[in-house]
Write a structure and sequence with these properties.
Layout lengths: L1 H23 L2 E8 L10 E6 L2 E6 L5 E7 L2 E7 L4 E2 L3 E5 L4 E3 L2 E2 L1 E2 L6 E2 L7 E2 L6 E5 L1 H4 L5 H5 L5 E5 L7 E5 L7 E5 L2 E2 L17 E8 L3 H4 L6 E7 L10 E9 L3 E12 L2 E12 L8 E13 L5 E13 L3
Parallel strand pairs: 1-8, 1-9, 16-19
Antiparallel strand pairs: 1-4, 2-3, 2-5, 5-7, 6-10, 11-12, 13-18, 14-15, 16-17, 18-19, 20-21, 21-22, 22-23, 23-24
Length: 323
């Protein structure tokens, strides 16, 4: 009996030593979660990923967080909450070390696009129930022609009867080609009956394009059964203090040439801009050339800080060959 009790005591001591030893070999990571000004943030969800697996923790009311019983190694620490910007940080945890690490998180910049076409007033897309696509200036610069730009929009089908420059029709959500209202700075471009030919419409001088899918006849009449497409001309920035000139030249296969030159400026409350663009290509099929010229101009006068008068002009002249 004494031998058995002595043996059990030794076993208990061995188990206790193993538990204590394993605990001592476990590392920990703790610190505070703060914003850019150093203010503590509570309730922030942190995730630690590494060779030892994945662990989660939340900061308390004072911004403190704790990760316990971590195996030694390299970890990636990241914030899992939406609305905060934090690139995954690399943290090394020792087998027996207590690591202190302060986490600085930043609020993400929320991008809100404002549209005019859907309600005829400036409204954020987050407040609309319509299917709206806004093509920004960066996106319009990626295409030379409006039809090529609209091909990227969901629910919009562009039908071209030949090479670029041939008759081009547009269909929104399966509606007829004359079921869509097309506007340029609020000015209708539809021909009598509703049809619009997009063959020689270029992106020169276009700042953005708004596409509203679905019936909009209550706002725009019977031409807007399938949807509305509105193009907006580039405006003169208020920060401009002296005239600015721009010049671009692009080339490609099939003798493609796209040249654009323009000027814009401000004088007191008067703003002005002018642009000329030339697009030509021989295309892949003989005698299917395209030669297109675009001229745009704007003249504006700021009546008050919140109101202005603007005179807009745009001309498109194109010739296309028939194979």
């Amino acid at each position: 009996m004494r031998f058995r009790e002595h043996f059990l005591l030794k076993m208990d001591a061995a188990v206790l030593w193993v538990l204590v030893g394993s605990t001592a070999l476990a590392g920990s990571l703790s610190g505070r979660v703060v914003d850019e000004r150093g203010h503590p943030l509570s309730g922030i969800h942190l995730q630690l990923e590494g060779q030892g697996g994945t662990a989660n923790a939340f900061s308390d009311h004072s911004g403190e967080y704790h990760f316990e019983s971590l195996a030694g190694g390299s970890y990636q620490l990241s914030v899992r909450d939406v609305g905060f910007d934090l690139q995954a940080e690399h943290v090394d945890v020792g087998a027996t070390a207590e690591i202190k690490h302060e986490v600085v998180v930043r609020l993400e910049l929320l991008e809100q696009r404002v549209v005019v076409t859907a309600t005829r007033n400036e409204v954020s897309t987050t407040l609309l129930g319509n299917s709206v696509t806004v093509l920004s200036e960066d996106e319009t610069e990626q295409a030379a022609r409006i039809p090529d730009l609209l091909r990227t929009v969901t629910g919009v089908h562009v039908l071209q009867t030949g090479a670029p420059g041939a008759i081009t029709s547009l269909y929104i959500r399966g509606g007829e080609s004359d079921y869509s209202k097309v506007l340029l700075d609020g000015i209708p471009l539809n021909q009598p009956g509703g049809y619009t030919d997009f063959s020689n419409l270029t992106t020169a001088g276009i700042e953005r394009v708004e596409v509203v899918r679905g019936p909009q006849s209550a706002l725009y009449g019977s031409d807007a059964i399938a949807g509305v497409i509105q193009m907006f001309s580039k405006k003169v920035d208020q920060e401009i203090s002296r005239p600015q000139a721009e010049l671009s030249l692009e080339g490609g296969t099939y003798s493609m040439l796209d040249a654009t030159g323009g000027i814009r400026g401000r004088y007191n409350r008067l703003t002005y801009s002018g642009l000329f663009s030339h697009l030509e290509t021989e295309n892949a099929v003989p005698n299917s050339y395209l030669n297109n010229n675009t001229i745009t101009s704007t003249l504006g006068f700021e009546v008050t800080r919140d109101s202005s008068l603007t005179l807009l002009g745009r001309g498109e002249y194109g010739r296309a060959g028939v194979p």
